[in-house]
Amino acid sequence: MEIKNQSGVEYWKKLVVILCLGWVAIWIYRTVLTPIYPEIQSALGDISDTQIGLIATFYFAAYCGGQIPASIVVEKMGQKLTLLCGFSLFTIGTLVIANAASINMVYAGSLLSGLGCATFFCSAYSLSGEHVPQERRAFASAIVNSGSAVGMGIGLVGSSVLVKNMDMAWNNVLYISAAIIFVMVIVFALVIKPNQAAKQATEAKADTNTATTAAEPQGTSLLKPELVAVYFLYFCTCYGYYMIVTWLPSYLQTERGFEGAAIGGASALVAMIAVPGALFFSSLADKFKAKAVKMVVTLEIAGALMLAFTVLSPNTTALMISLLVYGFLGKMALDPILISYVTERAPKVRMARALAVFNLAGMSSSIIAPPLTGLISDLTGSKAIGFYLSAGLLVAGAVFFVLINLRASKKPEVQTA
């Protein structure tokens, strides 16, 4: 009996909505601090830019480090309990920052928040992988992912208006964030159903696996070639994205002459145009599943070209066209297709762990890309090489991905010969 039958026909739609809201809550937190760094520095005393930058470092280091442990907890305890524990910890971390009297308390809160958020990705997409019909899976993932763009907009605009325009104390926006996160704990508790049948099926499968491990081919592992290829491709995809998120405003200001609101407006447009791109391409991927690999490679090559054209564009109009096309074709358009690719090829009893490795591969770029691009800028006086490096990685990832998939598609023919 299929899991989705006992959950009800409409259950997967409820899941898609609440998982989208989960990303909204996470991205409100991720972006709510960045516009008010000066106010935090003023409130906490003589705090340097380097110390402020470490706030994100603590968060993302904990987020990346928590991926694999979180996936193991999902496999042992289920997605619902994992999410409840994770978002409770996320709420506590946010409250620690709201009550911080020193930068070290902010770091501690960021660490707890990162660990709490680490439970979301593997829980959310293993849930959708189990319950969303296969023919709607990529589109559903695109809807879930759109929560990140919505949350980003709310966090950036909300904290700027409340603190800078309405003179609200900086820590009050953290209390608001904590309230939103806690509401999600309640929503997860009410909506997500513990699936005892799925747990029993997993345990039975685990017993069967224990008896047949010696006979299983290497292809059933999390490191079979198709999965390794998509992990590497996702690293390359996210590298360009986090390079853009971190350094695009500075590049526009220092090297392309943008000023004032035009800097933030251009960066926000890149994020917002990604939502319709994700919905459009995920819908195509669901309709033409056999063409998914070709679609991924096409999007990656096109994204690489747009990153290069961003630097090569001779005027502001061409520059903005390049950025908007990159946003439409970039990471958010690829995320649902790649997530669907992973859930269809990963061993079912290890789906959460495969998604954790996939996300860890991508998010590791958030630790590497910003400082490496900064180093390149320090050495050369320009961030242009950083854009070219990102474009080159996209091409390398696409080539590796298509070669591995071509080899995999020929394997059945060889076995039957």
Automatic annotation (TrEMBL):
| GO CC terms in record | plasma membrane
Gene3D superfamilies recorded: MFS general substrate transporter like domains (1.20.1250.20)
**One of the Pfam families matching this protein, by short name:** MFS_1
- Subcellular location per the Swiss-Prot or TrEMBL entry: Cell membrane
Ranges of residues in domain Major facilitator superfamily (MFS) profile:
15-409
**Is the keyword Transmembrane in the record?**
yes
Can you tell me where the transmembrane regions are?
12-32, 52-74, 81-101, 107-127, 139-161, 173-192, 228-248, 260-281, 293-312, 318-342, 354-373, 385-406
The highest taxon in the source lineage is Bacteria
Task: Indicate yes or no for the key word Membrane.
Answer: yes
Q: What is this protein called?
A: Putative metabolite transport protein
Q: Which organism is it from?
A: Photobacterium gaetbulicola Gung47
